[in-house]
Design a protein that fits this description.
Blueprint (H helix, E strand, L loop, with lengths): L22 E6 L4 H5 L7 H12 L3 E6 L16 E5 L5 H13 L3 E5 L7 H5 L6 E3 L4 H13 L10 E5 L2 E4 L29 E2 L2 E6 L2 E2 L10 H4 L5 E2 L2 H14 L4 E4 L8 H13 L5 E6 L1 H5 L2 H9 L2 E9 L3 H6 L6 H13 L3 E8 L6 H14 L3 E6 L7 H6 L27 H16 L3 H13 L4 H13 L1
Parallel strand pairs: 1-2, 1-3, 3-4, 4-5, 9-12, 12-13, 13-14, 14-15, 15-16
Antiparallel strand pairs: 5-6, 6-7, 8-9, 10-11
Length: about 475
């Protein structure tokens, strides 16, 4: 329910231990599953952006990223008044365990990220979390901290939060998306040990992410981004983007960056302007970005400028070789365009990371085999095979939510490596086998492919125990 201003707010818990200043701890739960096993490690940009904003507003904040934390022993939650936890669907269970410990230490617990807002009642009913922040968190979280400092229990005027009052969930009116992204400070990288994030590479260079825009006009059925960040794309000023790149380059000494916008190449003129800025500043920078096949195909001149400015790789969503599956996923692309785009990218010397989704709602075993054969034919540098996962907030979730398996901890399996709902044509075990088969067939397709995967293993120092963890996560959750 949404809050009505005539409702009476009467919170049953003590809001905060002090009334003058709030000591804030922001936590990023450790990554799990495939990303952990394959060595991908990026700073938590969402938390860093919130930290930068609340720090600018005068609050004291500490960040603990459990993906890189080296300190032994438990976090001393008693040092903090408020604990904010950012989580996605896969790490839901770990986030609740952290919330339980923080709550037991007398902290006010706030949770946000791309999962909690869609299951806010489920989380609040655990009584381990006091507030849920919906959507973009910078302004919302800061206003909540100010209200907690005042200690007057008046939260109804804060847009974009959920909490319990008198045994009922109250959800305040949604907060409008932040239109002026340049009003936000840069992510507070100074609050974390950036040298601990040098494991992930682009070639032989340490790589770190940055965001230049928010929002996605495409509404793919398997992705919640257009709902979470909106369909209107809000762009940062190019000058601000270049300044952040220089900070990353000169202050933190990362000479490779990942543009992790949902669709970095949406506006070719802007991409070209960023490229010219990188060249004009004489930065020896390597980079990769997320993009759509159709945008690349229509703009080869943009691609050429990207390569001139240091682009080495692009991530594209191929998803399937079947028109019917592409239509169900609402991709808005076709197979012919995919072939043409991959040929064009190869012609311009870019490495290609292609993503595929297996197990579409109406897919059969033979349809999946056709997609595997198509992936081998495309012969990109990387093929990432995933199982269709109905994340809360997506159109797919609404289609299959009544068919999701009733496991004891179901969200732990939402890692794109497990079938989590009753499929019309595929069993859980069959889907697991097809996923493993896809990777085996793809990465043994040629001598070069075998060399590539072996190079990846050595680069990330992945040994037999990492392989064991991958198989354990892959088959055992």
């Amino acid at each position: 329910m949404y809050y009505n201003k005539n409702d009476c707010i009467c919170l049953p818990f003590v809001i905060i231990k002090g009334s003058f200043s709030v000591n804030i701890l922001l936590i990023n739960p450790a990554s799990s599953g495939t990303l952990k096993a394959t060595g991908v490690l990026f700073p938590p940009l969402g938390l860093l952006s919130i930290a930068g904003y609340v720090e600018k507003e005068g609050h004291q904040v500490v960040i603990e990223d459990l993906a890189v934390r080296k300190k032994r022993g438990e976090i001393d939650f008693k040092k903090y008044d408020v604990v904010g936890i950012s989580t996605d669907t896969t790490r839901h269970r770990q986030a609740l365990q952290l919330a339980k410990k923080a709550k037991a230490s007398g902290c006010t617990v706030v949770m946000g990220g791309p999962h909690p807002g869609y299951v806010d009642e489920e989380i609040l009913l655990t009584k381990k979390v006091d507030f849920i922040v919906h959507g973009e968190g910078e302004i919302t979280f800061s206003e909540l901290m100010t209200a907690l400092e005042k200690n007057d229990g008046k939260f109804h005027s804060i847009q974009g939060i959920s909490f319990f009052s008198n045994g009922k969930k109250l959800r305040t009116v949604p907060r409008p998306f932040i239109e002026d992204l340049d009003s936000l400070p840069f992510p507070a990288r100074h609050l974390i040990p950036m040298d601990d994030y040098r494991r992930t590479k682009l070639g032989d260079r340490d790589i770190t992410p940055l965001v230049t825009s928010r929002g996605c006009p495409y509404q793919c059925a398997f992705c919640a981004s257009s709902h979470f960040f909106g369909t209107k794309v809000r762009m940062r000023n190019v000058a601000s983007v270049l300044t952040e790149i220089e900070e990353i380059y000169h202050r933190y000494h990362f000479h490779a960056v990942a543009f992790v916008d949902d669709t970095f190449n949406l506006f070719p003129e802007r991409v070209i302007e960023i490229c010219h800025g990188i060249l004009g500043k004489k930065l020896d920078l390597w980079w990769w970005c997320l993009s759509r096949i159709d945008l690349l195909l229509r703009n080869e001149e943009m691609v050429k400028e990207m390569v001139r400015a240091g682009a080495k790789s692009v991530f594209i969503g191929v998803e399937s070789s079947h028109p019917k599956t592409l239509e169900e996923l609402k991709k808005g692309i076709n197979v012919e365009n995919t072939v043409q785009a991959v040929d064009m990218l190869k012609r311009n010397g870019l490495e290609i990371h292609a993503a595929y989704i297996m197990g579409g709602i109406h897919e059969t075993v033979e349809m999946i085999h056709e997609t595997i054969r198509f992936a081998k034919k495309l012969d990109t540098n990387v093929a990432q095979f995933s199982i269709l996962t109905p994340y809360p907030g997506t159109a797919i979730y609404e289609q299959v939510k009544d068919r999701i398996f009733k496991w004891r901890a179901p969200w732990s399996f939402f890692d794109m490596q497990h079938l989590v709902f009753k499929h019309d044509h595929l069993s859980f075990i069959r889907m697991e086998w097809l996923l493993l088969k896809a990777h085996l067939l793809y990465y043994t397709r040629s001598k070069k492919a075998i060399q590539d995967i072996w190079h990846h293993i050595k680069k990330h120092r992945l040994g037999i125990w990492t392989l064991f963890r991958f198989l354990r996560d892959h088959f055992g959750g």
